[in-house]
Amino acid sequence: MQQELSTQNWYSLREFNSFLYDIRYILLFYVLGDFITTAQALSVGVEENGFLALLIAEFGVWAFFVLKIGFIFVVYWFYKDIMSSSDSKVSEMWPMVRGIITFVGVFLVVNNLMVMWGNFGILQLLGILQLLGIMHL
């Protein structure tokens, strides 16, 4: 016996699909890109984030992926809250939030690639440049 989708369930499914499309770059960079490059970078170095290092050491790298998926559900809750607001200033926050999370994802992926290929990360590079007097932060 197959259950038919009610109008409410259909709307919720469409809304969630719309959300997934809206966060496609977050999924690409922050979730998949960071997970894949972190998993690969662990063969070259160690996780610098103490919490993540403990999580991965205790439960394996897939626990990190589960954490990322959990974060997506938090973002979805935030998205629904913002989009259901009648205040236009609140609903205008979503593109900024989405952009910040995407930027963090790109930053993490680039950092992990630098660790894999150069044995140093972006923040380490900035520290080195600062020591050499090339950058003044």
Termini gap: 65 Å
In terms of per-residue confidence, which ranges show pLDDT below 50 for 5 or more consecutive residues? none
Instruction: Name the structural class.
Output: mainly alpha
Helix content: over 70%
The percent range for strand residues is under 5%
The number of strands is 0
Question: How many domain modules?
Answer: 1
Largest sheet: none
Oligomer: single chain
Strand and helix order? HHHHHHH
What is the averaged pLDDT score?
A: 86
Rounded radius of gyration (Å): 19 Å
Pfam families: DUF5658
InterPro entries: DUF5658
Keywords: Membrane, Transmembrane, Transmembrane helix
Organism: Methanococcoides methylutens MM1
Overview of this structure, please?
Residues 26-117 form the DUF5658 domain. Keywords: Membrane, Transmembrane, Transmembrane helix. The chain has 137 residues and is mainly alpha-helical. It has helices at residues 7-22, 24-41, 50-59, 61-83, 88-91, 93-118, 122-131. It has seven helices and no strands. α3 crosses α4 (61-83). The protein is globular. The N and C termini lie far apart (65 Å).
